[in-house]
Design brief:
Helix content is 40%, strand content 22%. It has 259 residues and is α/β, with parallel strands linked by helices. Strands 4-1-5-12-6 form a five-stranded mixed beta sheet.
Length: 259
């Protein structure tokens, strides 16, 4: 009898735990932690950065438990579609091309794109200037899209890398003539470091509204309209109540939202 009661109690406990987990409606957020100060790992292997803080604040506002799932950047959208996680929060630019495959939340922030070369270089972000040069970009990024559209067919050797660290390594070792990247990310990850002291952002800013879009957002499956609405409401709330600005000031001394 005691054994029967124990089994029943265990069963109740088990189903109670499952029910609680389902009631909490946990969400998995896909991320590539190679973009400081937006998302990276600290010395202890913990995920840190503005996107991490922002995602945690959004989840808290939604009153939902969220976890982070690491994935290579160029594989984030396929992994989302394969339901390996529920949303992408990883500095993902909102573009018309990506909208063919996924949906987006409202804008999270917007940062400029720049060509980065060695100091004293005469290179500028034009096909004519870069002809015959080797320009590294991260695979699957809007920077690769821009370089392919405007530079590759004009004689520029555009080389795609699986991650930004590999681009920076080849740039500092002289295997590349330049890279196209997010100004905030490359400043944090390279230009502010000793190995990046001989490199700089090249004016003018690289612009193309069709490719770079209005900024970054949370990527979602197109069918998840209810989840999209929940994210948008949470984003609007943390923008209105000061949470967004408080988090942004931890990392930036300028208006990261871009309005």
């Amino acid at each position: 009898m005691k054994k029967t009661i124990s089994v029943i109690a265990a069963t109740i406990t088990l189903f109670g735990c499952v029910h609680t987990a389902m009631a909490a409606d946990p969400l998995r957020l896909g991320i590539d932690p190679t973009f400081p100060p937006f998302e990276s790992k600290n010395a202890s292997g913990q995920l840190v950065g503005f996107d991490i803080d922002l995602g945690n604040a959004i989840c808290a506002e939604m009153k939902v438990q969220c976890s982070w799932v690491q994935n290579s950047f160029d594989g984030l959208i396929p992994a989302l579609q394969a339901k390996k996680f529920d949303a992408i929060l990883s500095s993902l630019s909102i573009t018309d091309e990506r909208k063919k495959a996924i949906a987006f939340s409202d804008k999270l922030f917007n940062t400029p794109a720049f060509l980065i070369t060695a100091k004293g270089s005469s290179l500028t972000p034009t096909a004519q200037s870069l002809k015959g040069k080797r320009i590294g970009v991260q695979q699957g990024s809007v920077f690769e899209n821009y370089a392919n559209k405007y530079w590759r067919n004009a004689g520029v050797e555009v080389i795609a890398y699986p991650d930004a660290e590999s681009v920076y390594a080849d740039l500092t070792n002289g295997r590349l003539d330049g890279t196209l990247d997010d100004a905030v990310v490359v400043t944090e990850a390279l230009l502010s470091k000793p190995q990046g002291k001989n490199f700089t952002l090249v004016q003018p800013q690289v612009k193309d509204d069709e490719i770079f879009g209005p900024g970054t957002g949370i990527g979602l499956r197109q069918s998840d309209t209810a989840l999209q609405a929940r994210f948008n409401q949470a984003i609007a709330t943390i923008r209105a109540n000061g949470t967004y600005d408080r988090l942004a000031k931890k990392y930036f001394d300028f208006n990261i939202y871009g309005d």
